[in-house]
Amino acid sequence: MKKLWKKVRLFLKFHRFVPFFIEFFRSREVAKYQKMMYMLVIVGYFLFPFDLIPDWLGIFGIMDDVTIFMLILRKMIKIAPDHLKHKYGV
C-alpha cells in the first residue's frame, strides 16, 4: 500500500517536474549517454504506434502511458544529482 501511495503522490506532483526535467537535461553531472538514453526512451515510447493497452480503450489505454512515463521518471530521479533531488523535493 505504501508503494501505491508513493506512485499516486508522484503523479499528483507531475507539474513540479517540468523544471526538474529541464535541469536534469542541462546538468553536467548526468552523463550525456544517460540523458540521450532517457530522451530516446521518452520520445520513442510516445512515437511508437503500438501500446501495451490501446488508447481507444479509454482510461485503461491512457493509464498504461502514464504508468510507463512514471516508471521512466522514477528511474531519472534515481540517477539525478542529489542537489536536484533536494531542490525539487523528490
Quaternary? single chain
Work out the strand percent.
Answer: under 5%
Helical residue percent?
A: over 70%
**Overall structural domain count:** 1
For the largest beta-sheet, the strand count, sense and barrel status come to:
none
Low-pLDDT runs of 5+ residues are none
Domain DUF1232: 39-71
Main location: membrane
InterPro entries: DUF1232
Subcellular location: Endomembrane system
Describe this structure in words.
It is a multi-pass membrane protein. The chain is 72% helix and 0% strand. It is mainly alpha-helical and 90 residues long. The protein has one domain (18-88). Helix 3 (32-47) runs antiparallel to helix 4. The protein is globular and about 40 Å long.
Write a compact overview of the structure shown.
The protein is mostly helical and 90 residues long. It has helices spanning 2-12, 17-26, 32-47, 59-79, 82-88.
